[in-house]
Amino acid sequence: MIRHLASLAEIVDDVDAAVRFYRDTLGLTVQHEPGSPYAQIELPGALHFGLWARRAAAETMFGDPAAAERVPLGFSVGFEVEAVEPARQALAGRGGVFVQGTRYEAWGQVTSRFLSPSGALCEVAETPWARAITAPMRVAPA
User: What is the 3-class SS of the chain, one letter each residue?
Assistant: First the structure.
């Protein structure tokens, strides 16, 4: 059912502070428009690593930024699947607790979000630009 890891995003209350940390402290390249609730970090070995404002995540998932307390701070993990709806149904049948049904995102991705047993936000996704991965990534020996 799961093809590969599609995304990793840190959910934060302050995107600007997180951008400064990843850019200035860790020295990574960060793509971020001032005022945007999302940033993308360039990190070798990661297909997609982002920063997501908690209020923006709440608006996406629940239609209300005031529902931010329902979105856990920490990391969100996205799993690429062949098709979201059948994966959502299968996972729900195995006890998965979904907080968002199947949704067509404005950026061209199909998602459905659920919580892990520890409360971490996870998603199954159909990500068209991630379908080009045809083999596992391998690290070359030093």
Answer: CEEEEEEEEEEECCHHHHHHHHHHHCCCEEECCCCCCEEEEECCCCCCEEEEEHHHHHHHHHCCHHHHHHCCCEEEEEEEECCHHHHHHHHHHCCCEEEEEEEECCCCCEEEEEECCCCCEEEEEECHHHCCCCCCCCCCCC
